[in-house]
Amino acid sequence: MSDSPRKTAYRLAVAGFVVLAVAAVARCGGGGGGGAGGMTTPPSPTFANVQARIFTPKCALSGCHAGSNPQQGLNLQAGQSYADVVGVPSTENPQFQRVNPGNAADSYVYMKVIADPRITGARMPFGGAPLSTADRTLLAEWIEAGAPDN
């Protein structure tokens, strides 16, 4: 049984589309989120993610915000960081809370990582690369959500 030219053209068009779609998915890291150039799902704005992605690896370092004498009295090590940031006035600029739940724009920790002109001192992390857009977004969304301890 032979196909009409119209059916053959249709099948070729569908096959071409499938090939292009498969190639696009492969180029974007398989759609699983994480390969080079791949699409990634942003982390949910929880305190656990803020701690794991930002505070622990980029802030709670020796000579910075860790140990018995952390900079600005701000210990960002797991188990201590929440109590030291949420609702606590900044030591550099006490008119701002370090984290003002529901208000990232006026939260001093967020202001420091985006180099807001209202900060005193340097952008954070000091001496390191600026936080990625994804990490800045994570921090802001967690604060805007009310900075829950989750």
Report the uncertain regions: 8-35
**Number of E-type strands:** 0
Please tell me how large the radius of gyration is: 23 Å
Structural class designation? mainly alpha
Mean pLDDT: 83
Most strands sheet: none
| Shape descriptor | globular
Distance between the termini: 64 Å
Question: What is the overall number of helices?
Answer: 5
Spell out the helices and strands N to C.
HHHHH
Please indicate the percent range of residues in DSSP E strands (runs of 2 or more): under 5%
Q: Helix share of residues?
A: 25-40%
Question: Explain this structure to me?
Answer:
This protein has 150 residues and is mainly alpha-helical. 39% of the residues lie in helices and 0% in strands. The chain contains 5 helices and no strands. Helix 2 (47-59) crosses helix 5. The longest helix is centred in the first third of the chain and has 23 residues, at 5-27. The protein is globular, with a radius of gyration of 23 Å. The termini are far apart. Mean pLDDT is 83; it is low at 8-35.
List the helices and strands and how they pair.
Blueprint: H1 5-27, H2 47-59, H3 81-85, H4 108-113, H5 133-144
In brief:
This protein is an all-alpha fold and 150 residues long. It contains five helices and no strands.
Considering the chains and any ligands shown, give keywords for the structure:
single chain; 150 residues
